[in-house]
Design a protein that fits this description.
With 165 residues, the protein is mostly helical. The chain is built from seven helices and no strands.
């Protein structure tokens, strides 16, 4: 059972570390990904024949607000996952109910991360703003890989230890 607990801790920590690096990159190299967000919201790369251009948001204020919201969500995901991993480490040798309870922050972080990537990037960016139609801007496959990873880790850590013994 110790090996399973350690696997859960390392999986959550790895997701937290990855998202922390993404947030750090977005803060320290703000303008690179800001241009991407702007192009998605402006729908510049969506083919002219598409009938969804009315959905575009062309306000620079909304571009910055959207990007800052993304960065804040990434930072929250990273903080929750990493603090969740620490909580789980503290209960590594505890009885199953205590270890299960220590997963709360990790579950919250993984859920928020899933929602950011599924609702934010796949649904809003991909479908609403037509990112999938913009070949150079289509980040939907990348977002899907991340959200599936988060979902897999969420399912794995949600399993009760006594169910695995």
């Amino acid at each position: 059972m110790l090996a399973i607990r350690l696997a859960k801790i390392f999986c959550v920590a790895a997701v937290g570390f990855d998202v922390a690096l993404v947030a750090f990159g977005n803060v320290t190299d703000y303008w690179t990904n800001f241009v991407f967000v702007t192009e998605v919201l402006d729908m510049d790369e969506v083919p002219a024949a598409s009938h969804i251009h009315w959905r575009a948001l062309t306000s620079p204020l909304l571009h910055h607000a959207s990007y800052i919201l993304i960065i804040a969500a990434e930072a929250a995901v990273a903080a929750l996952c990493l603090s969740g991993a620490v909580s789980m480490i503290r209960q590594l040798q505890a009885k199953p109910p205590l270890f299960q309870a220590a997963k709360t922050k990790a579950v919250a972080g993984l859920t928020l991360g899933f929602l950011l990537y599924e609702a934010g990037f796949v649904a809003v960016g991909g479908e609403w703003f037509g990112m999938w139609q913009a070949h150079d801007l289509d980040a939907v496959p990348s977002a899907f890989r991340v959200l599936i990873t988060m979902l897999g880790v969420l399912i794995f850590i949600s399993l009760k230890d006594e169910d695995l013994a």
